[in-house]
Amino acid sequence: AQTVTQSQPEMSVQEAETVTLSCTYDTSENNYYLFWYKQPPSRQMILVIRQEAYKQQNATENRFSVNFQKAAKSFSLKISDSQLGDTAMYFCAFILDSNYQLIWGAGTKLIIKP
Amino acid sequence: SQTIHQWPATLVQPVGSPLSLECTVEGTSNPNLYWYRQAAGRGLQLLFYSVGIGQISSEVPQNLSASRPQDRQFILSSKKLLLSDSGFYLCAWSVGTPNRPQHFGDGTRLSIL
After folding, report:
1. Does residue A40 have a cis bond before it (omega within 30 degrees)?
2. How distant is the Cα of A17 from the closest Cα of chain B, in angstroms?
3. Which positions in chain B touch A44 (Cβ < 8 Å)?
């Protein structure tokens, strides 16, 4: 069965610091896609970043980047120069290439302190 | 640009009453549509998805049902709500292959009394 594990229920850092959120997953398939979503207190789920498993290059989106280690089945999210608006729940998820079901982790609550 | 509308934002219903949550997408054709439920402090659980009009796939057996009467309209229903149906319901859309990103509505907070 496919699973996603986020081992950090909650994290807090000072504004402008760098923070890394961890995510590990389990699948026996080879073709899949990985995502990080954020859910601020407003509750809207927002896509942060997407990574294709067949690409070795780590995806980046402005201050957000990932460290994708396929052999270790690890997909961590790094947020640089953190801002107060980054305060949110962050969810890691993956989907198999031939499947419509996103598999979600339980989330990490990230608090950015002023 | 594409937008997704989901309503109502908040709903309080008694046990045993019916339910109808509606979701519409604008700015795209033939989207894939999804209904999720999120328990407090947890990730999302996929309830239903649809790849076309009249095509509904159910991922979790429950007393909920879904329908897609129009290309960009997705409805979540129940004939009799249970206490366990309380939660946060999210509608989402994507286009193309399943690996494309899903985009979410603002959600409906459903409380069953």
Report:
1. no
2. 25
3. 104-107
Domain encompassing residue B25 = 3-112
pLDDT per position in chain B (113 positions), as tens? 889 999 999 999 999 999 999 999 999 999 999 999 998 777 899 999 999 998 999 888 678 999 999 999 999 999 999 999 999 999 999 998 888 899 999 999 999 99
CB contact under 8 A, B106 and A97: no
* Residue A6, min C-alpha distance to chain B (Å): 10
For domain A3-109, give the fold. Immunoglobulin-like (2.60.40)
Q: Where are the domains of chain A?
A: 3-109
Angle B18-B109-B30 (CA atoms, 0-180°, nearest 5)? 80
Contact B31, B96 (CB under 8 A): no
User: In this complex, do A107 and B101 lie within 8 Å of one another by their Cβ atoms?
Assistant: no
**CB-based contacts of B30: which residues, under 8 Å, 6+ apart?**
B52, B71, B95
- A105 vs B57: CB contact, 8 Å cut-off? no
The CATH number covering residue B73 comes to 2.60.40.10
Looking at the complex, report in whole angstroms how far the Cα of residue B33 sits from the nearest Cα belonging to chain A: 10
For residue range A30-43, what is the model confidence (pLDDT) as tens digits?
Answer: 899 999 999 998 88
Q: What is the model's pLDDT at position B61?
A: 66
Best to test chain A binding among B6, B10, B44 (most A CBs inside 10 Å): B44
Say whether residue A78 is in contact with chain B using an 8 A CB cutoff: no
Angstrom distances, CA of residue B99 to CA of A35, A93, A99: 10, 11, 8
